[in-house]
Specification:
The complex is a heterodimer.
Chain A (H helix, E strand, L loop, with lengths): L13 E4 L1 H18 L6 E5 L4 H16 L5 E3 L31 E9 L3 H11 L6 E9 L11 E5 L7 E5 L1 H4 L3 E5 L5
Parallel strand pairs in A: 2-3, 2-4, 4-5, 5-6
Antiparallel strand pairs in A: 1-8, 7-8
Helix pairs in contact in A: 1-2
Chain B lengths: L12 H14 L17 E6 L5 H12 L3 E6 L11 H10 L4 E6 L4 H6 L5 E7 L5 H15 L16 E5 L6 H12 L3 E5 L15 E3 L2 H4 L5 E4 L15 H8 L3 H5 L6 E3 L12 H4 L6 H20 L10
Parallel strand pairs in B: 1-2, 1-3, 3-4, 5-6, 5-8, 6-7, 8-9
Helix pairs in contact in B: 1-5, 1-11, 2-11, 5-6, 5-11
The chains are: A alpha/beta, B alpha/beta.
Chain lengths: 190, 320
């Protein structure tokens, strides 16, 4: 793991990725997506709220820059499909916005900030089936912190971050948090 | 949010906005190929209707089914209520069947409140006597927000109804819709005016968070929303106005009156309508009328209410 750096933006925790590193990771993922999907002609990027959505937009913008093609980009809220709804009070819903053309026959790339238990992705896969039948579903995450509880893996990973389950990983993005950083915090509540 | 929804007064501004925002997200469900979510799978919703209703019962049923809950419909006709079973015994029967939520409509004001003390699940008031009908107020607020604060979109999220002037017209005395709307709309920041003949206003109207006018025509040019109420002849035990014709002339919304409204104003009616009495057929069918939209929004809003009451952890047991 990275050496200790300064806490960012007044939040406790060690920065494991700074803005530059996040930018480079996303650039690499964008190239990988293009490579794996043979030019990205038939792909849709769907971000999982909250922070998956700006990540999906950034990836779409990068792919647009590299290849000059407009990649449809949307958001997929998975709250209603979660398996832990009854463990907490009912929570507010995020936005779901799918490209008007639908997802049938397309390659859907789900985008999220942190891959942890895999349960969010499981819920997202369920939610997707209600919208249509994609050709394939892939997963891109900025941070994979391990500790999977379901047989799910990411196709594109910004950074593999070995963590202990006591630790908390925060992803901060300029669109939501006014700054770009990935922080890791020891124990306690965020 | 509280565990029951009995009065619009139970909702804080934050609660009401949470319901409206949730409904806004659920509204897109109507455009999907599969109009169903798995969220309330395994939960049971009982529709307990002691009074006739078409749209409210169907609306709650559709809402619960779209969230995958099991729905049991109960109407007083043809049940043991006809044999003289009390509300409490009916409630205990439902309790034994394991209802997670009871949606109740009853002709007695306060029946849902009593029921809430007897059952473990959440109680949702779907209209009690002349008291309240909170989900109607929520769907009305949702309709107003969608129409007047920009359709759909993120722009309306978290936004109240601040500065919107709503005139509620007609039989306020017998209207549970009016009471719930006055409470909820004022919580959301709207300025509410009641326009009605003095005989059709409740005695305590002075304590309601709204203004009162006896002259509809002077209110129309400054209204963003006109909400017409049904003249509830079935609840009228005395003569409240000389004749239907006279009522219609003074408080009915006809084409000439509609022309006095500002350009953007909308016309609402909770239904069922008495066409030609409180609202002219041409007005009810005009582009300004949101009457059909209100029905569609009713399902969405009730889904939001059921999700927020039943979708999370069970509320801690209450001691009776």
């Amino acid at each position: 793991m990275c050496a200790a750096r300064n806490p960012v933006a007044g939040r406790d925790g060690l920065a494991v990725l700074d803005a530059e590193e996040i930018r480079r990771a996303l650039t690499r993922i964008a190239h990988e997506i293009l490579e794996r999907t043979h030019g990205g002609g038939e792909i849709i990027l769907l971000g999982i709220p909250t922070r998956g959505v700006p990540l999906a937009r950034r990836l779409a913008a990068r792919i647009g820059e590299f290849e000059g093609l407009e990649v449809p980009c949307g958001s997929l809220d998975v709250t209603m499909h979660r398996d832990d709804l009854r463990l907490r009070p009912a929570r507010a819903l995020g936005r779901t916005e799918l490209p008007a053309a639908g997802i049938d026959g397309k390659t859907v790339v789900l985008v999220d900030d942190v891959l942890y238990s895999g349960r969010t992705v499981r819920a997202a896969l369920d939610a997707l089936t209600d919208f249509g039948r994609p050709l394939a579903v892939q997963l891109a995450v900025l941070v994979d912190r391990g500790h999977r509880e379901l047989p799910i893996r990411a196709d594109y990973v910004g950074k593999n971050l070995p963590t202990s389950q006591r630790e908390v990983v925060h992803v901060l993005l300029a669109e939501v948090d006014d700054t770009d950083a990935v922080l890791i915090e020891d124990g306690g509540q965020p | 949010m509280k565990r029951h929804l009995i009065s619009a007064a139970d909702l804080s501004r934050a609660d009401a906005l949470l319901i409206l925002d949730t409904a806004e997200e659920l509204a897109s469900l109507a455009d999907r190929p599969i109009k169903k979510l798995p969220t309330l799978r395994g939960r049971t919703v009982v529709n307990l209707f002691f009074e006739d209703s078409t749209r409210t019962r169907i609306s709650f049923e559709a809402a619960a089914k779209r969230l995958s809950a099991d729905v049991i419909n109960f109407s007083a006709k043809g049940s043991s209520v006809a044999k003289g079973e009390s509300l409490k015994d009916t409630a205990l029967t439902l309790e034994a069947m394991g209802a997670d939520a009871v949606v109740i409509r009853h002709s007695a004001s306060g029946a849902p409140h009593r029921l809430a003390g007897w059952v473990r699940g959440s109680v949702v008031n779907a209209g009690d006597g002349t008291h309240e009908h909170p989900t109607q107020a929520l769907l009305d607020a949702f309709t107003i927000r969608r129409r007047l604060k920009g359709p759909g979109g993120t722009a309306t999220r978290g936004e109240g109804l601040d500065g919107i002037r709503v005139t509620i017209v007609g039989d306020v005395l017998h209207s549970r819709v009016a009471r719930s709307n006055v409470l909820l709309l004022s919580t959301l920041g709207a300025e509410v005016t009641l326009a009605a003949p003095p005989t059709l206003l409740p005695l305590a109207v002075g304590s309601w968070p709204c203004a009162v006018s006896f002259d509809l025509d002077s209110e129309l040019p400054k209204s963003d929303v006109v909400m017409m109420l049904r003249v509830q002849r079935e609840r009228m035990t005395a003569a409240y106005f000389p004749s239907i014709r006279e009522y219609s002339r003074r408080y009915g919304l006809d084409v000439a009156r509609m022309a006095r409204l500002p350009e953007h104003a909308i016309v609402m009616h909770p239904g069922p309508m008495n066409r030609g009495v409180e609202i002219a057929a041409e007005v009810a069918d005009s582009a300004r009328s949101t009457i059909v939209e209100q029905v569609a929004n009713g399902v969405t809003t009730r889904m939001a209410v059921l999700y927020l009451l039943l979708g999370g952890t069970e509320f801690p047991e209450v001691t009776q």
